[in-house]
């Protein structure tokens, strides 16, 4: 997610003007309120129907693969050790991929989608410990697929789709395009879902409800929280899909996956939940946990991890 956040979004709610207080004799300056942080609870590895998780998937918008590798992102990946690692906003052509990631023995099956027209723009990747039955790129529409935004892997019991959804951009200059994308992408997912259930993960570039960002009031006309983008996500859920985090944690506030680099937003936890695992409703009985790994550094997004029995 890249956007120039306005001051209301980027500043914490607890910033108090202490200048006038300090000028008055005998008055104590009011301390800024401590930020409310989200503590990722212990992982749950058993589903509602009593099955043990047998698939662990991690998704991370790395905001530039080469910089992320230099920031030791792969050390965290090795510690997390998912069965599949999905990356978004790689911003790297295949010929420029760092050897540190192309040579990773833990993930012998690696797939890359990059922007055809713009070097250092968009891009997604999928790294797998076991070989998928089939891997495809894009959604079958040239206007979308030229930007390298989707990889789909077929596994025996499900499809895994990773995506970097187009940003409506500053001034909402791409909002109309985003609305077209939402309709076409939903149709693509619904068609897959008729064949076998799916897991969708990635940076979906929308905070769905007010609970999903720190400052909803100041952002209703900003990319990622417009009524049009939120409605697009609602329509996806209405088509038979489930936001796994909200399914398990419906009332959990302050759980974000993106923080602008400006104004110490991450340390204040002034953020947005833009990264998701969305599941076909038929996979719900096997859902074990949907994690936000907000302690992991290396990008303006944090990774998220899904535990599921499939």
From TrEMBL:
Endonuclease/exonuclease/phosphatase domain segment(s): 59-301
GO cellular component terms given for this protein: mitochondrion; nucleus
Site residues by UniProt (Interaction with DNA substrate): 301
SUPFAM superfamilies assigned: DNase I-like
Domain of life from the UniProt record: Eukaryota
Residue spans of biased composition, Basic and acidic residues class: 41-51
Catalytic activity, reaction form: Exonucleolytic cleavage in the 3'- to 5'-direction to yield nucleoside 5'-phosphates
GO biological process: base-excision repair; heart contraction; heart looping; negative regulation of apoptotic process; positive regulation of gene expression
EC number: 3.1.11.2
Cofactor annotation: Mn(2+); Mg(2+)
Region (Disordered): 1-51
Residues engaged in binding Mg(2+): 61, 89, 203, 205, 300-301
Family: Belongs to the DNA repair enzymes AP/ExoA family.
Name under which the protein is recorded: exodeoxyribonuclease III
Organism encoding this protein: Larimichthys crocea
Lineage, uppermost ranks: Eukaryota, Metazoa, Chordata, Craniata, Vertebrata
């Amino acid at each position: 997610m890249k956007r120039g956040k306005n001051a209301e979004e980027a500043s914490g709610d607890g910033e108090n003007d202490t200048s006038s207080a300090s000028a008055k004799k005998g008055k104590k300056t009011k301390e800024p309120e401590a930020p409310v942080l989200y503590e990722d609870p212990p992982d749950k590895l058993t589903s509602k129907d009593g099955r043990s998780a047998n698939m662990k998937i991690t998704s991370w918008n790395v905001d530039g693969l080469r910089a992320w590798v230099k920031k030791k992102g792969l050390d965290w990946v090795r510690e997390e050790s998912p069965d599949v690692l999905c990356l978004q906003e790689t911003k790297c052509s295949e010929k420029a991929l760092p050897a540190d990631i192309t040579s990773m023995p833990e993930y012998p099956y690696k797939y890359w989608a990059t922007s055809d027209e713009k070097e250092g723009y968009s891009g997604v990747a999928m790294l797998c410990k076991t070989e998928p039955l089939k891997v495809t790129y894009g959604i079958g529409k040239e206007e979308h697929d030229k930007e390298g935004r989707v990889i789909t892997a077929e596994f025996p019991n499900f499809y895994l789709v990773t995506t970097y959804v187009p940003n409506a951009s500053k001034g909402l200059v791409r909002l109309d395009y985003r609305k077209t994308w939402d309709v076409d992408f939903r149709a693509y997912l619904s068609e897959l879902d008729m064949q076998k259930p799916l897991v969708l993960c990635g940076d979906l570039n929308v905070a769905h409800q007010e609970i999903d960002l720190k400052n909803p009031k100041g952002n209703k006309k900003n990319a990622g929280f417009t009524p049009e983008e939120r409605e697009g996500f609602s329509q996806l859920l209405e088509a038979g899909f489930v936001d796994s985090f909200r399914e398990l944690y419906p009332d959990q506030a302050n759980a974000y996956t993106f923080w602008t680099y400006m104004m110490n937003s991450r340390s204040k936890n002034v953020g947005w939940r833009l990264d998701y695992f969305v599941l076909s409703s038929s996979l719900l009985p096997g859902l074990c946990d949907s994690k936000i790994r907000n302690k992991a550094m290396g990008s303006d997004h944090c990774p998220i991890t899904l535990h599921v029995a499939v």
